[in-house]
Amino acid sequence: MNAPSVEQLQGGWPADLTSFVGRRRELAEVRRALAASRLVSLVGPGGVGKTRLASRAAWEVRRAFPGGVVLVELAGLEDERLVSQAVVTALGIRDQRARWSPETLAEQVGQRRLLLVFDNCEHVVDAAAATAATLLQRCPDLRILTTTRQPLAVAGEHILNVPALTCPPDGAAVSPDGLSAYEAGALFVDRARAAVSEFVLDERTGPVVGAICRRLDGVPLAIELAAFSLRVLSPEQILQRLDDRFGFLTGGNRAAAPRHRTLRALIDWSFDLCSEQERAVWARASVFADHFDLDGVEAVCSDQVSSDAGIFSVVAGLVDKSILIRGEHEGRVRFRMLESIREYGHEILRDSGQETSVRRRHRDWCLALAEQMRHRWFGPGQGELFSQMRLEHANVRAALDFCVREPGEVAAGVRITDGLRDYWRVSGLISEGRHWCDRLMERETASTLNRLCLLINAAHFALLQTEVSKATALLQEAECVQQELGDENSDLFIQVVRGFAASLGHDYVGGLATAEQVLDVLRESEEFSWLFAGLALVGVCSTLLGDSEKATAYYHELRHLCRERGEKWRQSYALWGLGMEAWRQGDASTAATLVREALENLQDFNDYHTAGLCAEALAWITSSEGQPERAACLLGLAHTIRGEEGGPLLPLFEEYHDQCERQVRGALGERAYAMSFEQGAAVRVDEALGYALGQKRRAEPTPKAESVKPLSRREQEIAGLVAQGMSNKEIANSLVISRRTAEAHVEHILVKLGFTSRGQIAAWLSEQRNQDIS
Predict the structure, then answer these.
(1) Where is the HTH luxR-type domain positioned along the sequence (predicted)?
(2) pTM of the model
């Protein structure tokens, strides 16, 4: 844009020296807010782009203020008593009064229809607030736009939180052209080409630039500093050096304010604005891995907060100063820090010599959550517990990593892992649960109760991943340790896992007998997790042996115990089993009702194993009811879920599956069967339960036919394999190409079709085939 005239924008308004990137939504919000409110504050952490946004917004609304748009730069003030004088100077008033006050300033502004932009208010916030309040009260046509890390807290203030620039999501396959659709990527490319004119965004640099933008949280200042470094470093080298971002991100615009020349100087400015207690909580809160809530801060950080101030007011102060960013997740208020803010706090904590003690407090808090999970899991609040653990998952990882790395902390790590045994399963994170067992066993090598607990859980996780030989080896060691220690409870748990191993080895008689012999003792204990696992095991073994009477009895017992406690997750397994038995007895209607109830119970969880069994069962039931098209869709859905869960069907269930498939293929014909199967297979896993229950899927954008770039023959072939549910690795193996080549083909298909998910490819392909038929 051209530099504005003095008549339009007074106060030495700075002309843009670099292009303005993105912020369309935020600009619209500022315009709307200024139309409705007389005081609008742009609030956000340092370097997020508040000043540039305010500058551009003021330029866009300048014609609505015939009295002028005036920038009042407050960053250089060290004495807040000079705020009124700064406004006088910006307005160009020549009157040399001995002392300017908000009241005398208001006399000068009078009836002018004027927009004042108070830039960088945070360090003089009290004086800025008093000045703004007086001016607004006495000058009816005045409006004020502020940029600040802390709201002014003046009546009528409209607060707009300025977010970081949009970044490509972690793990997303974004083409070089697509990267520029994200504000952070567009800014990096713009500044990179200004620093190095020959910079090219291509297949090599694109993913690296996306990773840089994510690592820097989309903060414009940090991105600009990183892009400026291209004068001496490649994008790959920049990404590698971001582990030391404060030492690395220096330089940049020498004409900028000193605090904007380096990332450290910018955050030093914020740190200096905080009280002593706010600084202490900032440093201690850096041990949280991701977002966290007030309860977490109280548990981990409150030892440094005096009782008269209270942790609540300290957290509120950090939110006001944009150190903590407030958000809501599943109806709960959570806080997070930008990564640069967190790393700064971590550096302060480390230098204080208190890092280990604070991490231990964080570990204790996570341990308390795991113990709560253990004691309350089989009860009416199961869904809420699961939701809470999902929110705290990153923090649990950090706590377990501390337990693995810090000497003397293995016992706490074992308690956390054991307390979350069912959580790993229900959340679809069996590999992670097994990972922590393995890492802790590397530290706990002696024959102790801790190692015994880890061995049992690791064997159980290995079986859930159908690695029977690995689980058998772990069980053998567990039995040796148990005999050495003589721990009777552990022997009960070993037998349940041993029965599970036998059933996966197709020894259903042995599996049933092994688990049945410990059920009576488990019924008398409070070990509901192992009791319910044992009942599920004997139920399915009885089904596989064709003993419907015994299977039904065990499933009924499991359902009764679950209902008695208000438990949903294990009850879903009992409902599936009862549905299976009803179907085997020829009662398809009752079977469908029971299996759908099981699926409804599973909607709060990520148990793909049980969900896959239910989808399969519904396909068989639906086929027997004479609905082949729906059955084919459900077979495709079950295929997708099994691809997520990774486990094969047991032989009897494989027999039912093959029988259903033959019936449906015969009824529909090959082409119609393939189309219906692909329709089900294209459903995203997160929508699978709703789809199985007949709920409407969320609409996904489909490109207009004329806008779709035609796929090459090879891309058509690969799109077909994607529609079959193949992973990139499976596609590579099938076509005898490298995995990287397969990934590139899939990404090109997504770009050509304008899609963001593999499921959309499958749905589009099905639609194309429907058009060909018609």
Answers:
(1) 704-769
(2) 0.67
Does 731 lie in the same domain as 625?
no
SS3 39: strand
Cα Rg of the chain, angstroms: 31
- Are 156 and 125 within 8 A, CB to CB? no
Query: Which residue type, as a one-letter code, is found at position 217?
Result: D
More confidently predicted of 46 and 369:
369
pLDDT in tens, 314-356: 888 888 777 887 888 777 889 887 777 787 888 899 999 999 9
The CA-atom distances, in angstroms, between 107 and each of 88, 111, 134 are 11, 9, 11
Residue 83: per-residue pLDDT: 86
Last residue of a domain, one of 692, 719, 734: 692
Q: What are phi and psi of 336, to 5 degrees?
A: -145, 165
Tokens of 688: 């699978």
Phi-psi bin for 627: left (phi > 0), alpha (psi -120 to 50), beta?
beta
| In the block, residue with structure tokens 């500093």 | 225
What is the total count of domains within the chain?
6
* CA–CA separation, 172 and 168 (whole Å): 7
384 CB contacts (<8 Å, ≥6 apart)?
A: none
Type of residue numbered 528: F
- 86 lies in some domain: yes
Do 348 and 371 belong to one domain? no
What pLDDT does 598 receive? Answer: 94
The 10 Å Cβ neighbour count of residue 665 is 17
Q: Mind listing the pLDDT tens digit for each residue in 19-44? A: 677 778 888 889 889 988 999 999 88
Spatial CB neighbours of 765, under 8 Å, sequence gap ≥ 6: 678, 719, 720, 723
- Contact status, residue 238 vs residue 210, Cβ threshold 8 Å: no
The parent domain of residue 181 ranges over 176-263
Count of beta carbons in the 10 Å neighbourhood of residue 185: 29
142 close to 112: Cβ distance less than 8 angstroms? yes
**What backbone torsions phi and psi does residue 440 show, to the nearest 5 degrees?**
-70, -35
DSSP string, 114-163: EEEEEE--GGGHHHHHHHHHHHHHH-TTEEEEEEESS----TTEEEEE-P
Q: What is the CATH number of the domain that holds 57?
A: 3.40.50.300
pLDDT tens profile 373-393: 999 999 888 988 998 898 898
Taken in order 187, 193, 196, 201, is the CA torsion positive or negative? positive
Provide the 8-state DSSP code for 588.
Answer: H
- In this structure, the answer to whether residues 420 and 510 fall within a common structural domain is yes
- The answer, yes or no, to whether residue 579 has pLDDT greater than 90, is yes
